[in-house]
Amino acid sequence: MAKAKALWVYARRTVLCCVVLTVCGAAAAGQIRYSIPEEMQKGSFVGNIAQDLGLEAKALSERGVRVISRGRTQYFALNVKSGHLITAERLDREQLCGRAEKCLLNCEVIADDVMKVFRIEVEIADINDHAPNFQAQAMELKISELTAVGTRISLPEAHDPDVGVNSVQSYGLSSNEHFSLDMQSGPGGVKYPELVLETALDRETRAVHQLTLTASDRGDPAKSATAQIRVLVVDANDNAPRFAQPVYKASVLENVPRGSTVVSISAIDPDEGSNSEVSYAFTRISAQGSQVFSLHPGTGEITLVGDLDYEETAAYEMEVEAKDIDDLSARAKVLVTVLDVNDNVPRIEITSLFSPVPEDSAPGTAIALLHVRDGDTGLNGEVSCSIPDHVPFRLQKSVDNYYSLVTARDLDREQVADYNVTVTARDRGAPPLWSATTIAVQVSDVNDNAPAFSQAAYSVWVSENNARGASVFCARAADADWGDNARVTYWLAEGELQGAPLSSWLSVQAESGAVHALRALDYEQVREIRFAVEARDGSFVSFEFY
Ligand SMILES: *[C@@H]1O[C@H](CO)[C@@H](O)[C@H](O)[C@H]1NC(C)=O
Known about the structure:
CATH superfamily of the largest domain: Cadherins
Number of helices: 5
Distance between the termini: 204 Å
Number of strands: 45
Mean pLDDT: 87
Structural class: mainly beta
CATH architecture of the largest domain: Sandwich
Shape: rod-shaped
Bound molecules: 2-acetamido-2-deoxy-beta-D-glucopyranose
CATH topology of the largest domain: Immunoglobulin-like
Largest sheet: 4 strands, mixed
CATH class of the largest domain: Mainly Beta
């Protein structure tokens, strides 16, 4: 029956949650159109053929009504009892029609008796039986931290074999502070997501951003898929090194050995890899400092390569620089204070010496002027001087580390003619350092001693008839003094014997004190001669009598 008529067929499928099926009867002659959702069970109702063709259901088999599908596969079958067109197998729209917007299957109903062919078109409607799918669930993006705001980076699309609202409809991005999502239309109206940089990145603040990209369809119920996007922020050398402190201070004993570490400086560059490598150098250092200190360019260790001397330089001020590969730099100060060590022995210098000193000098007479020096400071440089107790001298402190050595008592050359006075200078360091010097003090003679005979009187016996000029005696007087003061001369004191002066009887040799008889003596005439010999030194006279 070729009739142009519109047919609306409603079928209810309680199992499939009341899916409403719409069948559009074709306007064309002999064409009937049904619509069923995909994925229905085999044997599901498609349409009431008998009714729609105006045939008696019972008569269908008698009249030899058959269903023939074009192509090899029989998708549909006829239930001759009920007169319904049913599915011959489970129908998957995506398999049958792919991405085609409309999925139409055709079959023919042939009624043998009347030699009639009815064309039947069945639309397989899409159901949301696929979720969107990303090819990779995780991906990494490397983005330089210097990338300009507004830069767009394309993201992978998700695929959904369903069509229409059941296929991918929208994308979403997890909330974050740097990126937004924008859709771009590619050729053929394909929409793909793009990441848009909204605020500048900084690797030093955050090196990795974890984003979640969601693709959703609008099926009922809606399905979605997610992909994890790891954004690795690639370092750029956008940071200069920074010193941990603006000034490095160190105190070092002046006697620390070469090779010792004085101080270590350190600068941090927040960049990564070679961008964070820092090298160190002195930017300001005195000529003297550069001979004493060395800075390791890699470690920032300042070591001693020369000798420190507090007395020469008590402090060093240097400036150092830390630089990265692009010459981004920072500066810091290094202050090294040299600490005094008691390494200087006090030195005694004899500025003037008045020696020999006359033995009759009054106590308090200055003999020497001394100056003591000690290069150290504080107690290390505080010096005191001393001399032994047993010498007749004392030290008198004068101004400015000057001392004078003065006599403390009367001197007597005849007792001690020279002194070795040891002056000891000692500082107050711990342990103290000291030195000593010996001052040779000579006591010069003063004629303070008279010549003295060992006896007040001497008796000598002389045989008579001596030869004239014979030696009779030798007078000897000792004089404790020295030199001319001790040179004694002798002479005969005046006197008479038997009316003749003694000098006609005896002579005394002035230098030796030898007494000679000037006449031959006669016992019978002279039994005894009493005479006196006088002795005298340079300035002192002594009379001695026999
Ligand atoms: C003083 O020292 C000198 C040189 O060491 C020495 O010859 C002399 O005998 C010493 N004098 C005294 C009184 O010790």
